[in-house]
Amino acid sequence: MKKRKFIKENFKLLVMALSHFTNDVHGSFLPTFVPLIVESLGITYAQAGLLKSISGGMHVVIQPLAGYISDLFSRPYALIAGPLLTALGASMLPLSPTYGLAILFVGLQSMGSAIYHPLGHGGVGHIVPPGKLASSLAIFAVGGILGSTVSSLYAISLYELFGPSVLMPLGAMVPVAFVSYLTWKAIPKLAINNSKNKPSPMDFIKTMAKTLKKIFPIWGVSISRDTTIQGIRFFLPLLIAAKGGSLVDIGTILFIISIIGTLSPMIGGKLADELGEKKVIAAGMTLAPLFLLPGAFSQGFLSISLYMIGIALLQALLPVTGAAAQKKAPESRSVVASLVTGVAFGLGGVLIAPLGVIADSLGLETTLSFIALLPWFPMPLFFLRWKNI
């Protein structure tokens, strides 16, 4: 009986990791196609950054609502609808004939991803034992990170196979529809124990405020981490393009610098279960800038290697911050997930626009240097407030 339960739990977890991969492989299309959009539409870096900020703003607004509503119901609707919307919007990006339509497609992609993530992360806590939360979240996170890692190669393959035509979104939707069907069959219901059955605006506000108070230092770490990762992935392709690199060069380099980070969450989750979340978060956030900053000032293989290590250290913390936050507020797992993975990710995206202004004024190299230091910013508050949350 225990063996059957173990297999059942892990099968559900693997299906959720697969759906995370499906969502994030499309949710990361923008950095790959943004140089193409900049060139074809003739927009500035600030306007390009605004596309990412709009995406981030969608996450900030939608994820808390999606997380709150997901905690009220047991059906995994968000796990089904989210990846379908994400894939549709993302695959339309290279077809954008105007800046306005580019904004529309980014919004559609972001809406799907924002709907998906709160229940994705929060749902893991409902299907695994508490003692395996960090390592289970690591498996789920690896699905998403692997999707983000291969996203650039997959995006280029779709573009070269179908070109900028309606066939590209049609081709992208077929595997997503299959995974959504598999998710519905494997996880028809999540064991969410909540007596509420009607969303209430006042209850939403109270729940968000109460949860945020409990996890605020962890939330600050998540914002800084996600801004750093997104900033590098967004501005590094623009720097490569500015130096004469092709779309294939951009996709290949994005893949290389992300590949180690695909497995680092497994290490981070395991260490967190053994050593505690605080030590692992402190180590990752402290060490990452020591590699990212020299990466911004160097070139070639050395620069790529340094970026690989720095990003891997930050991505190792994805399940760690999630587990730490869920332990602080286990009664609102999807709300917690919406804050530390959704709103944090969204705010990181919102900050890309002002970083784009810096890039227009001071250059891409200076912008990447500043981004490299961001992981240090929240650490004083983290150490001061950890015991009080």
TrEMBL record:
Residue spans crossing the bilayer: 137-156, 162-184, 246-268, 280-298, 304-323, 335-355, 367-386
One GO CC annotation: plasma membrane
Domain Major facilitator superfamily (MFS) profile, residue spans: 12-389
PROSITE patterns hit by this protein: MFS (PS50850)
Keyword terms: Membrane, Transmembrane, Transmembrane helix
Entry-linked Gene3D superfamilies: MFS general substrate transporter like domains
Source organism: Thermovirga lienii (strain ATCC BAA-1197 / DSM 17291 / Cas60314)
Leader sequence segment: none
Keyword DNA-binding: no
Protein name: Major facilitator superfamily MFS_1
Any GO MF annotation of the entry: transmembrane transporter activity
Pfam families the record matches: MFS_1
